[in-house]
Amino acid sequence: MDIADAVNAIEVSSVSKTFFGEKGMVVKALDAICLDIRPHEFVCILGSSGCGKSTLLNLMAGLISADGGMIKVLGNTIKKPIREAQMVFQEYSLLPWRTVLDNVSLSLELGGVSKKERHHRARQLLNSFGLDEFCNSYPHELSGGMRQRAAIARALSTGPDVLYMDEPFGALDAHTRLKMQQELLNYWLGEKKTVVFVTHSVEEAVFLGTRIIVLGGRPGTIRKDIAIELNYPRNRWHSEFGDYCSSLLQAMESP
Amino acid sequence: MRATDRTPENNILRHHSRFRHNIVLRIIYKALLSAIVPMLFLLFWHSRAIGIDNPLRLPPISNILDIMLNPMENVIGIGSIWRNTYISLIRVLLGYTVAALVAVPLGIIIGYSRVAKRMLLPFLSFFRSIPPIAWVPLVLAWFGITSAATILGVAITHPSFLILNNLRISMLAIIFLGAFFPILNNTIFGIESVRKSYVDAVRSMGAGPVALITKVYIPHAMPTIFTGLQVGLGTAWQTLVGAEMLPGSIAGLGFMITHAYQVMRIDVVISGMVSISIVGAILYAASHVIGNLCFKWKTQGK
Asked: What is the C-alpha separation between A200 and B165, in angstroms, rounded?
């Protein structure tokens, strides 16, 4: 990825998105979004519900297509999902009829990797995520936190350079959520992948991100784009942490 | 067992139920509870049979038991109960299999593609409310008494002729129609109700339409499709009697019932009905066991 190192990992240039609902309903979700993300950045996209932050992530991931403008990820113009960028969803993304092992190796299965090889790699990943005992369990037998850990393992199985995360800890209880945030940070500090993390929690964004983009309004536009200059591990009770939170909260709430 | 059966509230209720300390007593209690109404029914039947004293209107239970307990014996010169059941089963399974082979793929296509749905569903819905029996005259006009033996050109002397000659195309067509719509409807419904988040998750891994259908849509819809196959088997079995009453029919439980009626053997009529019920129950129970084995993730999950 020498080329990608030199330029931006993700380029979003004047992208708009309109949804056409049934009965002729028209909703303009995003308007003329421009955004460059450098390699190894941990970008949090922050906004209240309905501001178009998930739409922006789905556009980057190639799950939906934009009305106009262009999105480039690692040099590829995005028309559909690419293998180098993988996604972690909020919940219900592990297939309930597959064991954890078969879920985690699904991405490799689609890539045509042999059963022995993909199971081997999935086992290694599950090991490093502390899920080795649950290889043959079904998703409903796991706790919410373990399910999300498995979902992250699955996203990493193909060795992507970019990781999209759509409120991955949103459905977890407060305690598990904090634990998972720390685990994710530890992982990112070790591997330094490019992460785009969608959340509506200001505190989560300031705890995790190197950079925070606030989306707001309807149609959604970029309200604020700031770097968080705090060292990891961050202290939630530090006054600077609080300053960042209050200024971001203001940006979110301003009409 | 469904997940809701295992909630603490239910456990409390169960502990307050009768005979909670003794499993054997509880099983006997439950069996007795289910047996009360059938017993009263049989008692009523028995007393009325004695009162009426006319087996042409209501034969005594012992007559039916006599026929049912000797299923290999030739009754009224049209073969044994066993043979007629066996021929009916082959017909149903054949017509039903063809219906499943057409309805499941068609349902998957209609459920997946909006274009296919627009093109096909209004047309198919036109036929939905026509009961299979209403097709009988038309089907007879088309296929007459053509059988599998005629189509395959099997000679009358060949040992397989007896079976193949009983597989009338018109009957298979009626059974097909009986099974087709329940299977189709459930398949469409199953495919359409696939959770979008699973589709998105697998799409984000780079799966194309074929992989999505085989890895997400079909496995997710399988329990619903299976329900359709179960219901379809039931309706196919019910439609059979009508199909076997078609002219030219010379075997099968449906034929046995109509023929026995014509020769005023009400005991044979009732025995035929009981046989239909028993086979139907066995088919249902078997499919239920298979369903529970195959779709554990569905009953235990969520």
From this structure: 71
Tokens of B111: 């459920």
DSSP state of A212: E
Whether residue A185 lies within 8 A of chain B, CB to CB, comes out as no
Q: Are A140 and A150 in contact (CB under 8 A)?
A: no
Q: Tell me the pLDDT tens digit for each residue of B185-226.
A: 999 999 999 999 999 999 999 888 999 999 999 999 999 999
Q: What is the ipTM of this complex?
A: 0.86
> Is the same domain home to B97 and B215?
yes
Residue of chain B with shortest Cα separation from A79: B206
Domain range spanning residue B286? 67-300
**A-chain residues near B222 (CB < 8 A):** 97
Check CB contact under 8 Å for B206 and A92: no
Q: Is B216 at the interface with chain A, CB within 8 A?
A: yes
A83 close contact with B: CB closer than 8 A: yes
Same domain, B31 and B93: no
Q: What is the pLDDT of residues A176-217, one digit of tens each?
A: 899 889 989 888 888 888 999 999 999 999 999 999 999 987
Domain boundaries, given as residue ranges, for chain A: 94-159
Q: What is the mean pLDDT of residues B143-160?
A: 77
CB pairs under 8 A between A and B: 71
Interface check A105 vs B, CB under 8 A = no
d(Cα B6, Cα B62) in Å, to the nearest integer? Answer: 44
> Rg of chain B over CA atoms, in angstroms?
24
What are the phi and psi torsion angles at B8 (to 5°)?
Answer: -55, -40
Together in a domain, B80 and B38: no
B79 and B26 within one domain: no
Q: Taken in order B99, B104, B107, B113, is the CA torsion positive or negative?
A: negative
Chain A nearest-CA residue for B195: A92
As for how many domains chain B has, the answer is 2
Residue B61 lies in a domain: no
Same domain, B234 and B124: yes
pLDDT in tens, A57-71: 999 999 998 888 899
Q: Does A80 touch chain B (CB under 8 A)?
A: yes
Low-confidence residues in chain A, pLDDT < 50: 1-5
